[in-house]
Each structure stands twice: as structure tokens, then as C-alpha cells.
């Protein structure tokens, strides 16, 4: 916990008029008869002439826009040739990875990049080679030589730059940087070790943050929530710039996209956040509308809208400033992005662009295009962006026809040179996992922890003004309470209070850390963990989110990727299913897919319910532990909860932190001094022996600890058996040493949790203990969990979750049959029937 005199006040206490309860829902207003009107949504409103654009941008910029479009086209033509023929020009190569091409969409990619600054960030989709290249080329054009060289020298300690200097030299810094960009991307697509992400991301996940190109994403629409989190960081930190989320028209059928747009449009940014941060999020939802989601036609078949831009009207009164734009014209796109960017920079976000273009190739290289006619494809060929823009530049005297051809030839030579380098294992080494078998495993976690900043974070009021802190101070601690009265020797704060103290310490010391979720602010979280924080934390650091589990997690990922730290909450562990992709594909994988470059300091708190039945009381810890890339904790005591949450909040790795609702009011029973007032951390992965014993080892996860301890007492007093009880505390990582040491002593292992037995994490532990301690075991390890059934309601919970009698039955009936009891716990009264149902 933070001492009150450590943190000074830098802002006034938030006035009541800026609290939700001041925004009165007036029935006199809301019950009036009325009609709603919607803003007009422009469709292909761009009307500037090319001479006007020449005057505005200059001929050099127009020529470069065309060249960038040609670079993208030739780059993807090369990939298509490898996939279709196994060769490009005279280069043979068997590329086995995916190739989702954007041929025909180059105008949209180059147009958006033309309007963005270097520090504006884009996120992409599985079809975002074009956006990546366009953003990179535009960044190179804007960066001065010093910063450009620094970026290339810093990446991979300059290794890729040295490779480019040797094999793809250029007389200019810009030319060298372009070769650096293209080789880094192509080597990544070919999964070579000097790809931008060390070959760990591949075609659909490539990115390079120094040029503003943040992760492309293989999951349809997934960039929406991450981009919103990125924009949240830009807003909260004052980093400046905007974030742009690229996705296709098919993504509008995805719930997380809608969640992201709503999260980005929350009214509280303009009504409740402090004055300096008031205004909408600077995020632009950029839909590359090529009229097809794989083979499904969005207009007329799989969607309800006739123009994608219409969906903006469902998000906020400004209709997200939505607009339909001609994506075949890079200048029309640039004009629209520039206008939206101006709105976003001035706090009027979010914004939406429906950028109509046409994917002239299939969804992937195996797509036979059976879902569209040759006539349609031919009709769109007349609107090819490169052909149309070339013709416009030639007809207006910006370029001659021979200049365009020379440009094509020059780009072709450049792509050939880059390709030859990328397929050459001497230049672009193959990732040699055989030589380093644990390479990928070493990328899973950084296992790093931060030191908290020495300068306290700004607060709304001194800590001593918090009623929660004053109340907790009276819950029996050593020494004196702030008022001076003598207190008892045992500090009896609850697990809920312990979580509060760890959270408070980090929030008070680290301004990068924000916390949000459903009902997290005035309510204090559904179970009161955050109660009192709203008195001292400004809105931008503790706020209520929509009931949007996918957006809660996705925005936390985006916020963390940008340099922030996020503590977010799902009210019940059962709601993990509503954020499955965001937890399992986004939160878990970006560190590894970045080759260890990105950090994901996200802590996701999930309570495991009780009394609410099948959809609110499931222990899904095993499901989360199964996913590589996530650290998992499940403390059962206040002491462990405070120390583990502190470690989680300090970690540079993503953590899922489980909490049992039945334990929130539990006080510390294992440390004679209670929970220390001082800040401390407990390392992940270290099980804790809660009771010494010699005859049987009982390993528990979560609240099963207390049933095991009660059973151990009865085993000692009634049967003369000594049980050693070990609390797992965390599931990933997990150090087996203490368990194996105990089993060597006792020879018997019972593992207990409230998760369903089938697929339980304890099954994994039991299997590994059998493997590594086989010679020490006197009986097979036994897992005791819940049946493989749905969780019943409150009155039947004791017949479902393991009870003391179940533990006694197993220990005496299976490990020590000579001491078999007649207790017949609910889990053992019909073992044969249970086994039959389990199968």
C-alpha cells in the first residue's frame, strides 16, 4: 500500500458535475414524442481537379504516389507468381506460406499513407502488404537522413542494415531505406531470421513500428479494437497523432468491430474526462471495401447495408463523420483521410471511411473466382488505379508515357534484386529451429519486471482523504492507526483489500497504468476491489467500459503495444468466451510473433463465480493455461493475492489473474503478521507449502486450498495421517520442484481444484509428476475436481465442487484403504457412474 505522505496532490478533487450521477436522465426530456434525424453521409464527394492537386501537393509528390502504387503492385505480383508458378522472373522459389493479395487496391493504400504523418500509426489485416509498404515508403520520404539512419541502425543492432548495404546498396539514404523496408518485409513473409519480426510473424502479421506500421492481423476485423487501444494511449499519454485501423468490408459482420467502434465513441471522453484530455479518440476506421468477404458478396448477400458508410449512423450522433470514398483514386483517399485526421486531432473522433476499391485477384491464390463473373472483373479493369492515375498524370503533363514505363522498369529491377536477396539463405538465413530447439519457447515471455517510477503519478486528492484507505487502516495492523490508537497484532484485511492495495500502489506510482472494465469506477468493480479509487484517480486512468468484453481486452492490447500498461477486468471468468480471440490470439501471441520485440503489459482480472449457476460459475483456468503466451495466476490467500498482483502489474508479459468470489472476504491465515502494509512482490511459478506433512501430498488450485486444509486436520486427528498441503498459486509458469520434493517424501499425490476434471490443468501436473517422480510414487496421482457437467445453482454447489469428505474418501479409500471411511462424499458415492459419464 502507498503511504499517504508519499504522493502529492497535483489536481483538484473532481467536481460532482463531472460525475455520471450529475448527468440526470430526465423523464420530461426522454418521454417526449420526437423523431431522430441523421447526418448526411457523402458518397464520392471528391471533386478536386488534378491541376488543383498539382498546386497543392507538387508534381514530385504525385509522381511518388504513382511509383509507390507500382511498387506495391509489383511486390504482390511477385508473390502471386511464386504461389502460382513457383518462380518470379528467373527466380525459382517454393513459397509455402499464405498470400492474400490486394492487387487493385493500391490507390487506397497509397492514398491513406499520403495523408498520414510518420507518427500516425496504422494497423492492418491479413491483406495488408499494400498498406505496410505504402506507410513505410511514405515514412521514409518524410524522415530526415539522421533519424532514418538511426532507425535502421537500431533495428536488430544494425544487422539488416549491414545486409542491405552489402547486397542491395543505393547511392541515396532514401534508396537504401526502401531496400531495407522491402527486404525486411519479404524476408518476414518468407519467414527468414532477418525478417522484421525474425520470421515469427510471416505474411499476415508483418509490421515495423518505427515507420508507424503496427501489426497486421490474420483475424478478420481484429485490428479495430487494437487500434482503438492505440488511440487511447495517444490520447492519455499526449503522444499525438492518430491511429488508423485497416480492415475489409466483410469485417463489418464481426461483433468485435462494432464493439471497437462503440468503445471509440464513448461519450465520457467528452463529458467526464478532465479538461486537458476532453474529446474523442483519434482513431479512423478505414474499411477497404472491395465488395467481397472471401466469396461472399457483402452488398446484396451477407450484409444489410447498401453502402458500408451507413453503419456510422448507428454509432453516434455524428455518424462517425462517415463517408464513402473512391478507393481507386489515391488523391480522393488522401483528401478524405486528411479531413478526417484534422477532426481526430481536434478531439472529434472517431471517424469512418468506406473506401470502395476492387480486389482484382482472388481472396487467396487458390481462389478460382467462381462467385463473380468475368464481365464484372473486366468492367472493373477499366478502373484499375495504376492505369487510371498514370493516364491522369500523363494527360496533365506531370509525366510522359515513357516516364511511366521507365518507372515500371526501375521498380521491376528493384523488386527482382530484393527478391533474389530474400530467397538466398546466405543473405536471408532460414530460421534454424533444429539448431536452437527452444528458440520459439524463449520468445514466449520476457520474464522482465519494471521498476516503478520514482515520481508519483498525479492524483485528484491525497491518499489520506480516501475513506477506503482509512477503513482498511483500522482492520487490525501492527503499530498505530493514523489516528494514533493502538491496534491488535494481526492485520486482518481481506483478499479484496489486498488486491486493492497492490492496485493502489501501482496506480499511484505509474502514470502509464490505467484500469477499466464494467462498473469499475463509482461502483468500485462488481465485487468492490476498486472501491475508493474513484476518489483519487482521474477518469482517464479509471473508467467504466461498455459491456464489451472483446473491446475491453483488445483495447488493452493496443494500449500496451504503444507503451502503456493496462489493468482490465472481466466480471466473470465465464465471459472469457466473449473475448476469446482477444485473449487467445491477440493478448497471448504478439510478443512471440514480433520475435520478442513487443511488450504486452496487460493484466486481465477474471473472477470465478459462485451461486450463479452454469453461465457464471465456471473455472476456466485450464482453458487459459492451455494457451501459449499467457501467464496465469490464481491466488487463494490475501498475502499471495497482494504479492502476485504486484508482480503481475510489474510484469512486461500478459497475465490472466483469476480470483474466486467466495474468497474475497477471506482474511490471512498463514502469515502470523497478516498482510504487510509495505509493498512486496511474489514471483510467479512458485507453489507454496501451506501445511507440512509426511504421508500424502495435496496440491490445490484456488479455493480448494481451504477444503484441503480442513481435510488435512481431520486426517491428522481421526486417522493419524499427515497431509502436506501445497497451494499452486500460479499455473503458468509452474515450478515442479516443491511438488516433486514433497512426493519424494510422501509417495502419494492428490490434486484438487474446482475446475471440471476433464482437461483440468491438474491433469497436466499429474501427468508430469508421474513422469518425473515415477519411482517415488506409491500410488498413481489422483485428480479431484468438479464433474464434467454444467455448474448447478447455489443450493447444489456443495454437491458439485469438491468438499472435505471427498478428499477424505480418496485419501483413506485409495491411498490408505486400510483406513477407509464411510463418509461417502458426494464425489465418491457412485464412482462407476461418474467414470461412465466422464467417458
Task: Provide structural commentary.
There is one protein chain. The protein has 839 residues and is an alpha/beta fold. 38% of the residues lie in helices and 11% in strands. The chain is built from 29 helices and 21 strands. Strands 11-10-12-13-15-14-19 form a 7-stranded mixed beta sheet, sandwiched between helices. Helix 27 links the parallel strand 20 and strand 21 (782-786). The radius of gyration is 30 Å and the shape is globular.
Distance between the termini: 49 Å
**Global mean pLDDT:** 91
State Rg. 30 Å
The percentage of residues in β strands lies in: 5-15%
Helix content: 25-40%
Tell me about the biggest sheet?
7 strands, mixed
The number of E-state strands comes to 21
Strand order of the largest sheet: 11-10-12-13-15-14-19
Question: Helix/strand-derived class?
Answer: alpha/beta
Uncertain residue segments = 1-13, 477-488
Q: So how many helices?
A: 29
Shape: globular
Tags for this entry?
single chain, 38% helix, 839 residues, globular, alpha/beta, 5-stranded parallel beta sheet, 21 strands, 7-stranded mixed beta sheet
Secondary-structure blueprint:
Blueprint: H1 27-30, H2 50-57, H3 59-85, E1 87-88, E2 91-92, H4 106-115, E3 121-123, H5 129-142, H6 145-154, H7 159-167, H8 173-189, H9 223-237, E4 243-248, H10 255-264, H11 268-271, E5 283-289, E6 292-293, E7 296-297, H12 298-302, E8 323-326, H13 330-345, E9 351-356, H14 374-381, H15 385-395, H16 401-423, H17 439-442, H18 467-473, H19 495-509, E10 513-517, E11 542-544, H20 549-561, E12 565-570, H21 580-587, H22 590-593, E13 602-608, H23 621-625, E14 631-633, H24 638-650, E15 655-660, E16 688-691, E17 696-700, H25 704-719, E18 723-727, E19 730-732, H26 737-746, E20 749-756, H27 761-772, E21 782-786, H28 804-815, H29 831-838
Parallel strand pairs: 3-4, 4-5, 5-9, 8-9, 10-11, 10-12, 12-13, 13-15, 14-15, 17-18, 17-20, 20-21
Antiparallel strand pairs: 1-2, 6-7, 14-19, 16-18
Amino acid at each position: 500500500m502507498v503511504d499517504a505522505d508519499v504522493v502529492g496532490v497535483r489536481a483538484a478533487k473532481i467536481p460532482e458535475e463531472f460525475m455520471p450521477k450529475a448527468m440526470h436522465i430526465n423523464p420530461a426530456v426522454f418521454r417526449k414524442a420526437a423523431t431522430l434525424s441523421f447526418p448526411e453521409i457523402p458518397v464520392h464527394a471528391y471533386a478536386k481537379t488534378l491541376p488543383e492537386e498539382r498546386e497543392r501537393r507538387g508534381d514530385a509528390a504525385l509522381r511518388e504516389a504513382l511509383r509507390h502504387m507500382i511498387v506495391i503492385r509489383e511486390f504482390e505480383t511477385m508473390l502471386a507468381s511464386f504461389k502460382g508458378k513457383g518462380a518470379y522472373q528467373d527466380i525459382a522459389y517454393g513459397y509455402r506460406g499464405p498470400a492474400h493479395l490486394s492487387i487493385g487496391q493500391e490507390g487506397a493504400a497509397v492514398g491513406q499513407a499520403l495523408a498520414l504523418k510518420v507518427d500516425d500509426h496504422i494497423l492492418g489485416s491479413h491483406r495488408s502488404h499494400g498498406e505496410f509498404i505504402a506507410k513505410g515508403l511514405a515514412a521514409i520520404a518524410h524522415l530526415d537522413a539522421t533519424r532514418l539512419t538511426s532507425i535502421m541502425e537500431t533495428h536488430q543492432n544494425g544487422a539488416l542494415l549491414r545486409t542491405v548495404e552489402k547486397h542491395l546498396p543505393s547511392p541515396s539514404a532514401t534508396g537504401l531505406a526502401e531496400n531495407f523496408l522491402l527486404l525486411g518485409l519479404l524476408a518476414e513473409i518468407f519467414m527468414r531470421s532477418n525478417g522484421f519480426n525474425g520470421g515469427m510473424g510471416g505474411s499476415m502479421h508483418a509490421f515495423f513500428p518505427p515507420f508507424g506500421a503496427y501489426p497486421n492481423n490474420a483475424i478478420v476485423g481484429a485490428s479495430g479494437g487494437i487500434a482503438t487501444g492505440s488511440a487511447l494511449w495517444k490520447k492519455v499519454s499526449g503522444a499525438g497523432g492518430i491511429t488508423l485501423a485497416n480492415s475489409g468490408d466483410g469485417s463489418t459482420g464481426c461483433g468485435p468491430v462494432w464493439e471497437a467502434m462503440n468503445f471509440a465513441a464513448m461519450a465520457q471522453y467528452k463529458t467526464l474526462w478532465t479538461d486537458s484530455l476532453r474529446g474523442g479518440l483519434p482513431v479512423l476506421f478505414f474499411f477497404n471495401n472491395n465488395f467481397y468477404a472471401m466469396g461472399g458478396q457483402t452488398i446484396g448477400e451477407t450484409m444489410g447495408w447498401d453502402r458500408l458508410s451507413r453503419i456510422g449512423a448507428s454509432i453516434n450522433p455524428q455518424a462517425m463523420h462517415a463517408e464513402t470514398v473512391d478507393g481507386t483514386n489515391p488523391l480522393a483517399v488522401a483528401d478524405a483521410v486528411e479531413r478526417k485526421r484534422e477532426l481526430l486531432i481536434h478531439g472529434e473522433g472517431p471517424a469512418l471511411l468506406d473506401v470502395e476499391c476492387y480486389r482484382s485477384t482472388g481472396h487467396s491464390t487458390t481462389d478460382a473466382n467462381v462467385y463473380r463473373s468475368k464481365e464484372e472483373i473486366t468492367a472493373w479493369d477499366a478502373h484499375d488505379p495504376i492505369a487510371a492515375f498514370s493516364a491522369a498524370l500523363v494527360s496533365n503533363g506531370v509525366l510522359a508515357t515513357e516516364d511511366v514505363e521507365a518507372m515500371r522498369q526501375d521498380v521491376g529491377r528493384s523488386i527482382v534484386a530484393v527478391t533474389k536477396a530474400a530467397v538466398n539463405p546466405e543473405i536471408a538465413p532460414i530460421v534454424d529451429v533444429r539448431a536452437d530447439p527452444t528458440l520459439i519457447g524463449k520468445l514466449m515471455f520476457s520474464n522482465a519486471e519494471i521498476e516503478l517510477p520514482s515520481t508519483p503519478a498525479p492524483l485528484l486528492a491525497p491518499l489520506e482523504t480516501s475513506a477506503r484507505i482509512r477503513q482498511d487502516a483500522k482492520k487490525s495492523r501492527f503499530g498505530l492507526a493514523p489516528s494514533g490508537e493502538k491496534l491488535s497484532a494481526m492485520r486482518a484485511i481481506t483478499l479484496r483489500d489486498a488486491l486493492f492495495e497492490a492496485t493502489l500502489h501501482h496506480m499511484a506510482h505509474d502514470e502509464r497504468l490505467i484500469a477499466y472494465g464494467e462498473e469499475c469506477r463509482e461502483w468500485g468493480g462488481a465485487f468492490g476491489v476498486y472501491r475508493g479509487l474513484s476518489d483519487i484517480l482521474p477518469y482517464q486512468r479509471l473508467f467504466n467500459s461498455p459491456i464489451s468484453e472483446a473491446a475491453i481486452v483488445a483495447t488493452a492490447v493496443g494500449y500496451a503495444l504503444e507503451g502503456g500498461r493496462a489493468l482490465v477486468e472481466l466480471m466473470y471468468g465465464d465471459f472469457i468466451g466473449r473475448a476469446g480471440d482477444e485473449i487467445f490470439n491477440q493478448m497471448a501471441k504478439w510478443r512471440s510473433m514480433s520475435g520478442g520485440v513487443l511488450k504486452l503489459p496487460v493484466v486481465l482480472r477474471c473472477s470465478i463465480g459462485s451461486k450463479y449457476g452454469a453461465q457464471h460459475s465456471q473455472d476456466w483456468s485450464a482453458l487459459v493455461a492451455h494457451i501459449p503466451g499467457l501467464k496465469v495466476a490464481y491466488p487463494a490467500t490475501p498475502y499471495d493475492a497482494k504479492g502476485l498482483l504486484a508482480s503481475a502489474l510489474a510484469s512486461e508479459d500478459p497475465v490472466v489473474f483469476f480470483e474466486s468470489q467466495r474468497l474475497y472476504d477471506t482474511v490471512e491465515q498463514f502469515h502470523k503478521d497478516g498482510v504487510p502494509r509495505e509493498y512486496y512482490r511474489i514471483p510467479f511459478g512458485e507453489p507454496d507449502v501451506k501445511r507440512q506433512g509426511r504421508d500424502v501430498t495435496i496440491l490445490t488450485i484456488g479455493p480448494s486450498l481451504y477444503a484441503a486444509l480442513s481435510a488435512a486436520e481431520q486426517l491428522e486427528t481421526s486417522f493419524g495421517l499427515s497431509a502436506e498441503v501445497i497451494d499452486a498459486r500460479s499455473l503458468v509458469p509452474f515450478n515442479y520442484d516443491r511438488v516433486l520434493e514433497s512426493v519424494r517424501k510422501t509417495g502419494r499425490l492428490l490434486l484438487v481444484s474446482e475446475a471440471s476434471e476433464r482437461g483440468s490443468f491438474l491433469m497436466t501436473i499429474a501427468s508430469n509428476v508421474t513422469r518425473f517422480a515415477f519411482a517415488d510414487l506409491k500410488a498413481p496421482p489422483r485428480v479431484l475436481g468438479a464433474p464434467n457437467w454444467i455448474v448447478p445453482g447455489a443450493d447444489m454447489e456443495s454437491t458439485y465442487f469438491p468438499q472435505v469428505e471427498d478428499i477424505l474418501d480418496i485419501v483413506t479409500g485409495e491411498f490408505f484403504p486400510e483406513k477407509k471411511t464411510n463418509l461417502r462424499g458426494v464425489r465418491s458415492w457412485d464412482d462407476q457412474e461418474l467414470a461412465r459419464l466422464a467417458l
